[in-house]
Amino acid sequence: MIKLIFFMVDKETYPDLEKVVSHYTNDELFEFVHAGLDEADDLLKNIEGSAILFFKVNDRDSLTASLKILKNHFKQIRTGFIKTACFLELENKKVEKALAKLGCREFLNKSIAERSLKFKIDFWSKALINQMKKAQQTEMVVKSNSENKNNHKKNNNDFEFKTIDPLNTNEDIWLNSRNNLCKRVLRSTMVRLVGPCQGAVYWKEEKRLDSGDQVYSLVYANDEVKNHIYQDDVKVKWLYHGSKPEYDWDSDEWLFTGQKPKLYYQLDGEEFIRFNFDESGKYITGTSPLSNRKLPVYFDLKKNAHTFANKNSSESKTDTIESDEDKKLENLKGKGRTEKIDRGNLEGKSSTDEIENGNLEGRSNTDQLGGNLEGKASTDRSNGNLEGKAGTDDLGGNLEGKAST
């Protein structure tokens, strides 16, 4: 059932309102309601299914009332179970921006054609129906509050933690593991959570704490992945204290390990803790229905995980590449060496002989012109004596060696 709620909308606001209503009157999928502020607020609070909320803004009072109802049901709007459309009679960009920030991005004119509005309602309805079907298919059984609040003991008699109420926010993207949710590993604590796969997201080191644990921030492969996870453009930042999280491809779970692990997100200056294991308490929040609905998204991301692998691996090697490039700018020392050309002695496994007036030493030598040459292989100079294992006579000179010409 989709409720079509008209909040502060009448014939004066939209002259063809009755025609639109009569078109959907016999359709069992829809229910029409004309409501004031309190009634609309109660309807949306206790809604079963989805709703399309029409409202108008033509003065300060109507703007205040509209912002209030949008704020009260912002979570449902962001998760896609409530669609909003505004008949805006004020030409003010600040008003549009304020409404858009609370999830209303559809602005209608009172002169909109009846056919156009019907088309929009049908289009929005299909999206709402698909969202409800997806939620029903992926809905998982959430433990009762009484069971969630029981103490759990894992692997160590003195190790206790609590599972408390879920955050119930769209920003909470984690699901608790059904097996081995939390356990002790030597002196560390390990928590297993289901989330977007490695590649779609990865963890970037931020800083090191006095306790020895490091702080990592969650980074998304690109904006498309982020929007796919949250179904909206949100400015949320996930942070984790502990060792760098590892992804288990077999169980589709992230392994969070640390001496005092803590996972939380920051939004609008506030901190929302997913789990915490320090002096202030040891607890894990439960899995919310909103988080359960993200499970199909994670399946889709895992199917395409290979498309993110190359990008992430190249980013992780950036520092190493830069370091190698710096080294190439320095003088080289060792087996391969660049020698001085003029008036200097050359030493090394491979040497390039000086051209003029210098002695040459090395395993392989090229004789200088006008000087004595010594080495395993020698080329005779003109008008001089040559000695070596192999010799070639010069004109007007004696040649000595094992092989003579």
Describe the model:
The protein has 405 residues and is of the alpha/beta class. Helices cover 29% and strands 25% of the residues. An eight-stranded mixed sheet has the order 6-7-18-17-16-13-12-11. The chain has a five-stranded parallel sheet with strand order 2-1-3-4-5, sandwiched between helices. Strands 8, 9, 10, 14 and 15 form a five-stranded antiparallel sheet that branches. Helix 5 links the parallel strand 4 and strand 5. It is elongated.
Could you give a short description of this structure?
By secondary structure, the protein is an alpha/beta fold. It has 12 helices and 18 strands.
Notable traits:
single chain, five-stranded parallel β-sheet, alpha/beta, 405 residues, disordered C terminus
User: What is the CA-CA span between the terminal residues?
Assistant: 111 Å
- Count the helices. How many? 12
* Spatial sequence of strands, sheet with the most strands: 6-7-18-17-16-13-12-11
Shape label: elongated
Secondary structural class: alpha/beta
Report on the biggest sheet: 8 strands, mixed
Q: Are there runs of 5+ residues with pLDDT below 50, and where?
A: 140-158, 313-405
Overall pLDDT confidence: 74
Q: What is the strand tally?
A: 18
Q: Helix coverage percent of residues?
A: 25-40%
